[in-house]
Design a protein that fits this description.
- With about 350 residues, this protein is mainly alpha-helical.
- The chain folds into 2 domains: about 90 residues; about 190 residues, Orthogonal Bundle (MetI-like fold), CATH 1.10.3720.10.
């Protein structure tokens, strides 16, 4: 039964992704047509520049035939609905075309390569942040739930209200002024030094460059996580099975972490996974401030350069990751909480 539930969730995830890709294709149809036509004319012009032994008539004939062939290959002469369909099919087949302005680190204009090489930096930075954020937030929230109303609970709750509405980009600039220029402890940005070190030194160098961005995110992030965890666990500790466990004389730590945390795990896991999903999409301003070469920074540069193929590739990537994460979350939630009805049956 649980296997059928997983298959069902994956099917609806893929169906949703296909529908959204067709919507993207329709929305960007006109702009993508213009971009593709411009790229074709640029490519043909480059080919003509090398035809030094041909006559002007031969060059003109070649130019017209070549453009017509490329138009037919990319369905540019087809009706609008057919162009939308074939472009969506191309995106689903990972054929994202060529970028208008941007290139990958090795000089390629292939959109797929440009986007893929930015996934790792974003996953590295925001993935580590999400792990630390959830770990610190859950542990602090459990301590708060253990003694509601204590000085720890009150002080951290006040701190949560103070930092809750604080923009991460604003704190990032403050930290850069303090820890980069006033007290030069950390580098101002980037993912590594120039020239890059090799071997184990490269790992240390990357950690060194990640330290300030992660510190900035943590100073804002885990307080709200701790506050939500505290409220969830406090409610769970009032349940009858917790009272029964305490009545049996179980140690308080076992009751709190063995029974309370396990029962409160589904919403806590939901918060953690949602945090990771939002982080994977990158943060445009935050990555720009620290010059972190991730997907958020690529979004910003692509918007500035009006590179529509790259933007479309980024949208396809983040949409798939987000939908896959939601499907994964549903599966994990059903696994952790036996009270959830799977496939309509208990």
């Amino acid at each position: 039964m649980f296997g059928r539930y997983i298959v069902k969730r994956v099917f609806f995830m893929l169906l949703s992704f296909v529908i959204i890709i067709f919507l993207y294709s329709a929305i960007f149809n006109v702009v993508m047509d213009q971009t593709l036509r411009s790229q074709i004319h640029e490519m043909v012009q480059g080919e003509i520049m090398g035809m030094t032994d041909s006559t002007p008539q031969e060059i003109q004939i070649y130019r017209e035939q070549r453009i017509q062939t490329l138009y037919a290959r990319y369905h540019l002469e087809d009706p609008t609905l057919q162009r939308i369909f074939w472009r969506a099919v191309g995106i689903l087949k990972l054929d994202w075309g060529q970028a208008s302005m941007l290139t990958s680190s090795n000089g390629s204009r292939d959109v797929f390569k440009i986007v893929v090489e930015k996934i790792y930096p974003t996953l590295l930075l925001f993935g580590i942040f999400a792990i630390l954020d959830v770990t610190i937030g859950v542990l602090l929230g459990m301590k708060k739930a253990q003694k509601p109303g204590s000085k720890l609970d009150q002080s951290t709750s006040i701190m949560t209200m103070v930092v809750f509405g604080m923009p991460s980009w604003w704190l990032a600039m403050i930290f850069i002024m303090i820890f980069v220029y006033t007290i030069p402890i950390f580098p101002s940005g980037g993912m590594g030094s120039v020239p890059p070190p090799e071997g184990f030194a490269a790992i240390i160098d990357t950690i060194y460059h990640m330290a300030l961005p992660i510190l900035t995110l943590l100073c804002i992030g885990f307080w709200a996580r701790a506050y939500m965890t505290r409220n969830i666990v406090v409610g769970t500790l009032q349940e009858d099975f917790i009272m029964s466990a305490r009545a049996r004389g179980l140690p308080e730590k076992k009751v709190l972490y063995g029974h309370g945390l396990r029962a409160a795990a589904p919403p806590i896991v939901t918060m953690g996974v949602m945090s990771l999903l939002m982080s994977i999409q990158g943060r445009l301003i935050f990555e720009g401030i620290f010059n972190w070469p991730g997907m958020g920074n690529l979004y910003w540069i692509a918007v500035q350069q009006n590179d529509i193929p790259v933007l479309l590739g980024l949208l396809a990537t983040t949409t798939f990751v987000y939908l896959a994460g939601l499907a994964f979350l549903d599966v994990i939630y059903g696994f952790l909480d036996p009270r959830i009805k799977v496939g309509g049956k208990q």
